[in-house]
UniProtKB/TrEMBL annotation:
Protein name: DUF948 domain-containing protein
Organism, as annotated: Streptomyces toyocaensis
InterPro entries to which the protein is assigned, alphabetical: UPF0478
TM helices/strands, residue ranges: 6-29
Alphabetical keyword list: Membrane, Transmembrane, Transmembrane helix
Length: 147
C-alpha cells in the first residue's frame, strides 16, 4: 500500500465519521422540530379558548366601566344639587337664625345681670414672671359697686 492509498483510506474514514455525526445531528434536529411542532399545536389549542375568555372579560369590564361612569355622573349631579340646596338654606335661614340667637343671648345676659343673689365671679389675675398682678380695672369697679 502506498502513501496515496493510505491517505485516501484516511480521508474516506474521516468522511464516513463526519457523515455519521451529521446524520445523528440531523436525526436529533428532526426530533426536536417534531416536538416543537407538537408543543406549538398544544399551546395553540389551549390559547384560543383563553383568548376568547379574555375577550369576554374585557367586554364585561367595559360594560361595568360604562355603568360606573353613569353612576359617577349621577353622584356629581346630586352633589351639585345638595350644594345648591345647602347654600339656599343657609342664605334663607342663616341670617334670621343668627339674629334670633343674638337676641336670645342678649335676653339671657340682661336677665342674668339683674340677679343680685348670684355669686360674684372670682377676680381674674395674671401671672408675670412669678408675680401675681390684679385683674383689669373694670372688674375692680364692678366689685366695688357690689360690695
Amino acid at each position: 500500500m502506498s502513501g496515496g492509498e493510505v491517505a485516501g483510506i484516511l480521508v474516506a474514514v474521516f468522511w464516513a465519521i463526519l457523515v455519521s455525526f451529521l446524520a445523528v445531528a440531523l436525526v436529533r434536529l428532526a426530533q426536536t422540530l417534531r416536538a416543537t411542532t407538537r408543543l406549538v399545536a398544544e399551546v395553540t389549542d389551549q390559547a384560543v379558548p383563553l383568548l376568547a375568555d379574555a375577550s369576554t372579560a374585557v367586554r364585561s369590564a367595559q360594560t361595568q366601566i360604562e355603568r360606573v361612569d353613569a353612576i359617577a355622573s349621577d353622584v356629581q349631579e346630586v352633589t351639585s344639587n345638595a350644594s345648591a340646596l345647602s347654600t339656599t338654606v343657609a342664605s334663607t335661614f342663616g341670617g334670621p337664625l343668627v339674629k334670633v340667637a343674638a337676641f336670645g343671648y342678649g335676653v339671657r345676659r340682661a336677665v342674668s345681670g339683674r340677679k343680685d343673689d348670684a355669686p360674684a365671679k372670682a377676680p381674674r389675675r395674671t401671672v408675670i414672671v412669678g408675680r401675681t398682678v390684679p385683674g383689669a380695672r373694670r372688674e375692680k369697679r364692678a366689685r366695688g359697686k357690689k360690695d
